[in-house]
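Section handout, structural biology tutorial.
Before the tutorial, make sure you can parse a SMILES string by hand: atoms, branches in parentheses, ring closures as digits. In the record below the ligand is NAP, and the chain has 491 residues. In the tutorial you will relate the predicted structure tokens back to the input. Do not try to memorize them.
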Amino acid sequence: MAKRVAIIGAGVSGLAAIRCCLEEGLEPTCFERSDDMGGLWKFSEHAEEGRASIYRSVFTNSSKEMMCFPDFPYPDDYPNYLHHSKLQEYLRAFAHTKSLLGHIRFETLVTSVKKCPGFLVTGQWTVVTEKDGKQESTVFDAVMICSGHHVYPNLPTDSFPGLEQLQGNYLHSRDYKGPEAFRGKRVLVIGLGNSGSDIAVELSRLAAQVIISTRSGSWVMGRVWDDGYPWDMVPLRKEPVFNDELPSRILCGTVSIKPGVKKFTETSAVFEDGTVFEAIDSVIFATGYGYAYPFLDDSIIKSRNNEVTLYKGIFPPQLEKSTLAVIGLVQSLGAAIPTADLQARWAAKVFANSCTLPTTNEMMDDIDEKMGKKLKWFGQSHTLQTDYVTYMDELGSFIGAKPNIPWLFLTDPRLALEVFFGPCSPYQFRLMGPGKWEGARNAILTQWNRTLRPTRTRAVGEAQQPHHYYNLLKMLSFPLLLLAVWLTFYS
Ligand SMILES: Cc1cc2nc3c(=O)[nH]c(=O)nc-3n(C[C@H](O)[C@H](O)[C@H](O)COP(=O)(O)OP(=O)(O)OC[C@H]3O[C@@H](n4cnc5c(N)ncnc54)[C@H](O)[C@@H]3O)c2cc1C
Ligand SMILES: NC(=O)c1ccc[n+]([C@@H]2O[C@H](COP(=O)([O-])OP(=O)(O)OC[C@H]3O[C@@H](n4cnc5c(N)ncnc54)[C@H](OP(=O)(O)O)[C@@H]3O)[C@@H](O)[C@H]2O)c1
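Predicted structure of the complex:
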């Protein structure tokens, strides 16, 4: 009999999980508390309890070629960066094409996930759900947690002395939907992440004045890179904030940047540099999110010092049986969709016993080693941060789906050049090995066409592509020079 897998949440991660379970011959049942799939990309006019909430104007900051399911490219004419409604349209098409919707139970909240009494032997879980006020308890062979990590607002009011006496109102970016209510107002936005910068720029067109307060600053860059290409299709390895308009709004003075807030008075904010923003109407805390799994015993995911201890960001290493996986919790410069797809493929294989995990000690050692590096590279507040390409290669190698570059150079040099020097696009991880997609080669070779297509209004000769081959020439020039010197002197 097929193993039964409970999947919690039908966002991007949940859809990936259902699909990968089906590929492995498992029997998935996905529970979704809301009435639709898509997770945070399903916009609603008001923040809903327990579900991520976005503002009306959100566009992705990952480009379409980098943010797709690896065997499901976006239609050619989709823009490179997508409004949330367009992404939701794509997710719906994916769910429909892969026949996933029939496996989702909507308006069903998972309230508890507990080990069954015989867990040491069976690895089974009792999952309690609630629908229309009725509770139901079901035993599953495995569980995939796909409930998202942009749900619970980080609202650090205690760190802001005097906030309680401020006459203006304050809210978290989670509750921000659009700028209308702020027309003519003086608004302080705290935090310079993507939410803070998007919101400040949007407000700057209607509000009287917008100030962003940032305690540690951010690198701000545009979505558009050299020659008009999307930033994530060219090599880059740092965690920036993406905003095409913020620099110009700052130059026009409608947005100003200040350091951290020292204290609030009844009407103003005093910043660390002693400057003051007077007559504040509203404060928006764009201070990010914390994550929580209220249906699960905390110690399973945070098995030590209240830190997330998950092997490769997915498996709790201390569990006696590897029958629980968290999908979508890591954060990287890469896009969520291909990451969730690869995570779910590996997890499904572990559940199906076609992959095994190392021992608890080996997994803990790996977690410690990775944590040390993360603290060094990304700092204390970014411990979910992971290097995208390294992570994807690692997961790919666990399931035999990492592209074999030397083999490709021998058998298909044109493709090899694009894989090695081109963007690390999702199709690469369905190019070979189990789960291979026959269309992957063509998708890789045509990825630049799909990128350019929506930007073209008329044909003006051959489109330029980024110069990967120049990179190849640059790399080869040194060994060639050495060879020439060697031949000159020793032959
Ligand atoms: C504003 C914003 C913009 C972003 N832009 C990008 C981007 O451009 N590119 C990118 O790659 N990533 C982006 N992200 C990251 C984003 O988190 C991922 O893209 C991805 O959508 C996360 O999907 P998920 O399925 O893991 O979580 P979610 O989308 O949050 O879905 C979780 C689902 O689980 C359900 N659920 C939760 N608890 C329960 C329960 N107890 N019982 C039943 N159902 C439950 C929820 O209702 C929800 O539908 C952005 C995030 C935000 C906040
Ligand atoms: N257009 C888009 O695609 C888009 C839009 C919005 C969000 N997102 C994504 O959604 C996720 C969440 O983004 P986010 O911007 O909401 O959160 P975020 O990236 O976590 O940024 C939070 C900001 O708040 C600051 N902050 C946190 N605690 C603070 C405190 N106590 N005092 C002062 N400042 C504090 C942080 O400063 P420090 O850096 O100093 O900690 C940081 O600047 C990210 O993955 C982001 O990429 C994407």
